[in-house]
Amino acid sequence: MGHLIRNGERRQVNDHIGFQSSLHNDAADLLPDEGARHRFEAIVDRAADARSTWLPVEEQMRATRAELHRVESHRQQLILTRSAHRPGADKEDKQGRDLDKQASELTEKLRRLIAREATAAARMRNCGILASRCRAFLAPGGLPSPARLASVSPIALSEILERGERTIDALERLRLRIRELEAHAHQIRSAPFPSEAKKRDAAALIARLAERGAPSISAMIDDNASEIAWPYTLQKHNLIAVVPDANTRVVGTASGQVPDVIGLLCWALRDTLTEKVNELIETNSDDTAALPADEREKQLAQIEADKLMTERKEAALVQAAQAAGEAVEHRHDISVLAALQLELVTQSR
């Protein structure tokens, strides 16, 4: 059946949309010009409109469900009365037919309301999350430092739409491209690193541990001590204490010096450990699909730039469609910079 938003969820929705004027003003103050403030306010206003559209549908759906339950309960009572062989069967048959008709009409009405409520609730969440993300981005401390916001020139629709292409088709094309870019980015992040690079990392790690784990015999030589100074390291442990009478748990941490067994092993068996670890790396590596760290970073940066430009075009189409009165919304996870037609400009300290 339909998706009901209960009291706790209502509070979450309100938190997403956030109608506090102080937050609204603080966020708008960071925007560079009137155009950016207008775009921000349009996003906030659509979130409020989406909620006001959903509320009466949800209330009507609950009222219809309650009325259907009342009719079905009355119908059930009538059936029980008839089974008792009481007089007035003809009247009861007519009442039964009337109740069946009412139940059928209410069921169909509820079906339509459930569909409307699901659509309205989805729009409300989408718009509310985007408004919340915009506020968080514009909140104090939300911008990377040192940086300021600046508006970018709008993209002409003629640069976005292909010959004879409708706005809705162009949106789907751009959103498909965004999904492709995200899939490509996931593929790059999931690619293994080259085995040779990881062998160098492993060798460097073992060398550091070996240096840390070397025992000291300076006291034996310089001070005629009879003990070797074995390496120690600081270990931290999580502690949980149960208090039976209070039915509570006390959680904390403890730390202390313990023998550095790993360091000592690396010092004593450095070459052997390095060789064994290299064998593990070779067994588990796939250099045919590997991607070096610098190339990975370069490709991901290019994908992010392509994605942002695609989202700017998407936002321009959405804004044009909304201005024409079409029921089109930004995606809730669109870049805030694209939705507000902004860019980050690094400031010199």
Measured distance between first and last alpha carbons: 57 Å
> Which CATH C-level class of the largest domain is it?
Mainly Alpha
Main sheet specs: 2 strands, antiparallel
The unreliable regions are: 1-6, 15-22
Bin the helical content: 55-70%
Which CATH-level-2 architecture of the largest domain?
Up-down Bundle
* Strands, total number: 4
Average per-residue pLDDT, rounded, comes to: 89
Notes on the structure:
The protein folds into 3 domains: 1-142, Up-down Bundle (subunit c (vma5p) of the yeast v-atpase, domain 2), CATH 1.20.1460; 151-191 and 296-349; 195-290, no CATH class. The model is unreliable at 1-6 and 15-22 (pLDDT under 50). Strand 2 and strand 3 form a beta hairpin. The chain has 349 residues and is mainly alpha-helical. The longest helix has 50 residues, at 34-83. It contains 11 helices and 4 strands. The chain starts with 6 loop residues before the first helix and ends with a strand. Helix content is 65%, strand content 10%. The strands form 2 sheets. The protein has a two-stranded antiparallel sheet.
Q: What would the keywords be for this entry?
A:
mainly alpha; subunit c (vma5p) of the yeast v-atpase, domain 2; 11 helices; two-stranded antiparallel sheet; single chain; 349 residues; 3 domains; extended; disordered N terminus
Report a brief summary of the structure:
With 349 residues, the chain is mostly helical. The chain has helices at residues 7-17, 21-29, 34-83, 89-138, 167-190, 195-212, 218-223, 261-268, 270-284, 293-323, 336-340; strands spanning 147-151, 232-243, 248-259, 342-346.
